[in-house]
Amino acid sequence: MWKKFSSTITIVFLILCAAANSIVKASFEDEVDIKRSDFPDGFLFGAATSSYQIEGANLEDGRSLCNWDVFCHIKGSIANGDSADIAEDHYNRYMEDIEILHSLGVDAYRFSISWSRVLPSMHFLSPFERFHCSCFFLSWVVVFDKHICDYGGGKFGGVNQAGILFYNKIIDNLLSRGAMPNDYLIKCFLLFKQICFIADNSKFSAGIEPFVTIHHFDYPQELENRYGGWLSHLMQEDFVHFAEICFQSFGDRVKYWCTINEPNLFSEFAYERGTYPPAHCSPPFGNCSTGNSDVEPLIAVHNMLLGHAKTVKIYRERFKSEQRGVVGIVVHSFMYKPLTEDKRDKEAADRALAFNIAWILDPVVFGDYPPEMRHYHGSELPKFASEERIILRDSIDFIGINHYATLYAKDCIYSSCICNDSSCTKGSDRAIRGFVYTAAERDGVPIGEPTGMARFFVVPRGMEEIVEYAKKRYLNKPMFVTENGYSSPLNKVEDYHHDVKRINYLKSYLAFLARAIRNGADVRGYFLWTLMDDFEWVNGYSVRFGIYRVDPQTLNRTPKLSASWFRNFLSNCSLNYVESCNSISLMNTDESRAQSE
Ligand code: NOJ
User: Fold this and answer.
1) pLDDT tens for residues 179-227?
2) Residue 276 CB–ligand 1 contact under 6 Å
3) Annotated catalytic residue 388
4) CA spacing 20 to 30 A to 312: which of 7, 64, 330, 590?
């Protein structure tokens, strides 16, 4: 009797599950109605960019060459021989771009600071300075900037005031985008905001909130030449110095800081696959002229994590009480699903998450590398000293998640993952990859619709799953989705204007994000990648993530359909018919230039 009853219950349960699944599928793949009001009050919606990808002006106003400037000019590094010497010329067109952001109605704008624009060169000590620094007594009798001793004669110095001015203009203009008629009022408002921040930042924020990444892949080439960039522990101090200059110069107005963007992805490409500067790798990952793919990514990340922790310590000790900002780190976050139902593939998917995401987040939350990594790595995984663990632990106020796609994971501990041709990813059978083979296809069927980026397939549910993962592992620490966006498959002309697939992508990912939030995840904001088509690293300009198209000749910006959709979404208008609610007109630099001529 019980048996019959339980099997009936099982059947009913399965039918219900199947029905629920098909409802979810239908609603997310066909017509997704997602509204801004599906997100909590005070949730920040924004767009994101990074300095190197849009600024251009690579030698203007005292900026020095960075690692990417040099790399781009090495033949064969970038698709079609592209470079970002000019990029989108944001350095000279930033006012137009801020107008665009304003016309979209975003709450916040995530951008990064170009290290080589702010600190272009080394500070050499003059004979007097050298004498002063070597004589402790003098510091009591002569007024002297102690930083010169700390940072001169070895560390990077020489603040470029033109660089500071550029970011000051961006920040001030963002904050003033709230119908402030003149400078005086802007200043009063900023002062008022400063005072009221004590109560609640979100309530008093008019204008566009600057959300600043200190380091997004680009650093002065001189640091690479002098000591090998992130492979040297010296880079930690130089990074801290750069971050301090940012806090000192902009921290009175910037309340959200990200120390480093995607240390995990950067170190994989720069030191394991050798496709980003400084192009280090070793077989089987690639054939670079130098490098050790099994070890160097671990060292680079180790230095980045310590640079992050030291920066946050200084922020909390010297700046936070006055500036009242928050600091996080941004991690590149693929979601991983087991390739088969086999228990070993399930473990491989968990391992992939640990070796890619927890690699960065465990140290800054718990103070050490994930146990999964300690288990499989030997002495190549660096160790933190006990005082380092102390400053690392709890060194973030929020987690920044860059999420685009999901991959399958297959175990390489118990089964063979040897890869002999170009169709598979080499090195999966190594500890540095967690003994996990990742793929975007199962039995020839892709995990989701392809996009313009290899390995970025559309799997909206992954957004909910990755947020759930971070929520569980990091005890629901506040999170921001610091990047999410869609690049059209190459040479699709419709992407120029009628980018319906981008709209569907954004809607469906947002719907799953809203679901994660409803289930209790503490996500505080979402940044769409990216504002305009830009320099997409090794893909040059061949891959386009923008909601604005940039004309390659004139560099004028024109809104794609997705920009209208985003604007309507942000103003909580009807979402499925973008034409139905156009009260605010979108900034179109093609038109505005034509009118002024
Ligand atoms: C993440 C990186 O932060 C960003 O620079 C890049 O353009 C996007 N992913 C898309 O690949």
Assistant:
1) 444 444 555 555 655 554 433 334 344 799 999 999 999 999 999 999 9
2) no
3) no
4) 64
